[in-house]
Structure formats: C-alpha cells, structure tokens
Amino acid sequence: MKTTSKIIKEIIFGHVGACIVLLCIVPVFFTAYGLYRGFEIKVEQISDPSDEEDLIVVGFSQLGSESGWRSAHTASIQQALTKDAGYFLIFNNARQMQDNQIKAIRSFISQRVDYIVFAPVIEDGWDTVLLEAKNAKIPVIVTDRKVNVQDDSLYTAWIGMDAKEEGKKAGKWLESYLEQEQRQTEEINIVVLKGTVGSTAEIGRTKGFAEIAARHRNWNILESVTAEFTANKAKEVMRDMLRRYPEMDVLISQNDDMTIGAIDAMQEAGISFGEEGDITIISFDATRDALELVKEGRINVDVECNPVQGTYVNEIIQKLENGESVQKYYVVEEKVFTKENVAEFLKDRKY
Ligand code: GYE
Q1: At what angle do helices 256-268 and 288-295 cross, to 10 degrees?
Q2: pLDDT tens digits, one per residue of 169-205
Q3: Which of 63, 67, 197 maximizes ligand 1 atoms within 8 Å of its Cβ, making it the mutation to test the pocket?
C-alpha cells in the first residue's frame, strides 16, 4: 500500500519530470520546425522565383487625400498599375506635406524601384531629390501638378491639365454670362477660394482668371483666400467672407470640395446662390457630386479637370519598357459644364 507521502512524491516528481521532458522537447521541436521552414522558404526563393520578380515595380507618391478629385486620381493610377497589368505598386500618401513626398521618393530610390510616379503638392523644391532619382537611373513620371525645376531632364514625362486654360475658361464663361444678363457695365464683386498655395492648380487657375478679369474694369476681386482645396476649410473661410462682403456677386472656387463647403456656409447664412440666387458660383473639377448641383442650377458652371491619368502613366511605362521614346508633356482633355450640357455627361460620370 502506498503511503500518503509516496503518493505526493509521485505526483510532484511525475509532473516535474514530465515538465522537464516537455521543456527540453518543445524548443528542440520548434527550432527544428523553424529551421525546416527557413530552409523551405530559401528553397522556394531559389528554385521558384516569386511572381513579383517579373513585375514592374512602381513607387507612387500621392500628395494627399484632400478632395473627391484626388480620390479619383489615386484610383485611376491604382486601377491602371495592377498586378494583372504587370505591376507591383508601392503607394504612399504624403498628407499634403512636401517633406513626406521627398522621404517617400528617397525610400523608393533606396528600394530601387523601376519607376517613380508622383503628384507634387507644390511646384518648387524638387531639384535635389529628383537629381538623386536621376543619378540612381530611375525614370520619374510626374502626374497632375507640375514641378518647377532648373533642369527638365530630371523627369521623364508629365501628365496633367492646363490649369491656366481652366482659369481662362472660367473667366470667359463669366464674360458671356454677364453679357447675356446685360450686366456688362455693372460693378461685379468677386471673391476667390484658392487651393493649396504654390500648387499648379492654384497658380494656373488664378493666373488664367486674372488674365480675363484684367479686360473688365468693372470686375472687382474683393479678396482671394486659400481654403487648401478642402470643404471644411472653405466653409470656415466662406462664413467669414459672407460676413465681411455682403456685396459679393460671384464666388470663384478653385475646386468642387471647397464649393460644397462654401454652399454649406451660404445655406447656413440664408444667402441664395446659383442660377436663381444672389451669388453666381464658378467651380473647378466637375466631380459627380458637383455636377449634380450644376444640374440643379445650384452651381452655375463647373470647369472640368480630368483626374483619369493612370492610363497615360501605364502607356508611358510600357513604351519605356519597349525602349520607345515618349512625349515629354501629356495634357488631358477637359470640358466646361453648365445646366445645358451636364445631363449627358453625368450618366457616365464614375467619380
Ligand atoms: O483640382 C483639386 C485637388 O491638382 C488638379 O487638386 C488638382 C487639384 C484638384 O485636390 O480638387
């Protein structure tokens, strides 16, 4: 018969023994398994090169996600440079900061990507980092906004819009609208919501409109304020301008998101706008949401800016891959939308 103390000893030593055995076996097992897995991975890499090795590696630095237009632009690049089309796309969102874009480009260089695609937040300040890309022999494709560099050979190609022409189109529309309304001699008070200062869209749209405005002594630009291309900021700025300028006749808003923010502020203040209202609205981009408002006559005119640029990027890369030469500048096609012509385009508008 076992004594109580024997039973206790057996339990303790039995479990301790089992624990010791387990403690010895488990690490041995995992080490062996780890070695086996490691070995397996190595073998896989050597004997069966992964698909990625055949893909064209593209680093894409997007400047941010401030607007509906920007989402459409990002989607267009992502939809063109897919794995099925032969690409491995590394995406980076710089959240409106040039420094972040410079860091992203440097990281693409150190990863030795095949191509760098980027949408620069502002025009200035790219010479150094683009020279680094050039020295690393990585072609750079600039999309959307422009870069202002000393040496144009720092990038291979640019795809984007004619922002100055867009500004002119806005001015010319206002010219003919006022004529039609027989208000050519009336004093016309204008406020401008500008986009990101120093960006191509802001520089071009401002210059283009100013060129037309210069022909009219009765056009009075009361103030131009940046709202950074965002709806929230525009609502804030517009609230303030409506208080300060009760005489406002025309709002020029350099993108649709800001227009939508400004409309919120006008509604809040009980001020009428659009075809039937007191304030004439001129917008840019022509995204779906804004075109709905054009259709309703709440935005008078929307000057299109085309974000569908991914197909061009793909075409350029394919040509370069085949050793063909590419154009330096590609300008996308753009229209002007009013209540009269918007319906036929709205039905196919994806963004
Ligand atoms: O108009 C605006 C944006 O650079 C053309 O950037 C682009 C502009 C576009 O976020 O909505």
Answers
A1: 50
A2: 999 999 999 999 999 999 999 999 999 999 999 999 9
A3: 67
Residue 234 has pLDDT above 50, yes or no: yes
CA 188 – CA 194 distance, rounded (Å): 19
- pLDDT value at position 53? 74
Closest to 188 measured CA to CA, from 171, 169, 202, 166: 171
Alpha helices in the chain (DSSP H): 4-47, 68-80, 98-110, 127-135, 163-180, 200-213, 231-244, 256-268, 288-295, 310-321, 342-346
User: Of the candidates 160, 163, 105, 165, which has an alpha carbon nearest to the alpha carbon of residue 138?
Assistant: 105
Pairing of strands 301-304, 336-337: antiparallel
Residue 69 CA to ligand 1 center (angstroms) comes to 6
Q: How many residues does the chain have?
A: 351
CA geometry: angle 178, 253, 250, nearest 5 deg: 30
Contact criterion met (CB below 8 Å) for 288 and 72: no
Instruction: Point out which residues pair with 91 in neighbouring strands.
Output: 60
Instruction: Give the residue among 92, 91, 90, 84 at the shortest CA–CA distance from 54.
Output: 84
Amino acid letter at 272? S
Q: Ligand 1, residues 61, 62, 69: which to mutate, most atoms within 8 A of Cβ?
A: 69
Q: Which residues contact 313 (CB under 8 A, 6 or more apart)?
A: 77, 80, 81, 117, 141, 143, 159
Q: Are 161 and 305 in contact (CB under 8 A)?
A: yes
> For residue 85, how many other CB atoms are within 10 A of its CB?
15
